[in-house]
Amino acid sequence: MIQENSATLNGLRVLEIGHFVAAPFCTRLLGDLGADVIKIEPHSGDPVRQWGEQVEGRSLWWSIHGRNKRSLALNLKAPQAQEIVLRLVADCDVVVENFRPGQLEKMGLSDEVLRGTRKDLIIAHVSGYGQTGPWRDRAAFGVIGEAVGGLRYLTNHPPGTFDLPPVRVGVSIGDSIAGLYAAFGIMAALWQRDRADGDGKSRSLDVALTESVFSMMEAMLPEYGKLGKIKQPTGGGIATAAPSNAYPTADGNFVLIAANSEPLFKRLAQLLGKPELIEDPRFNGNRARVENAAVLDQIISDWSSNFDARELQAMLDTSDIPASKTYTAADAAQDEQYRFRKMVREVQDPNLGEVLHTGIVPHIPESPGTIRWAGPDIGQHSAEILSDAGYSPTEIDTLKGQGVIR
Question: Would the N or C end of the chain have less CB density within 10 A of its end CB?
Answer without folding.
Answer: N
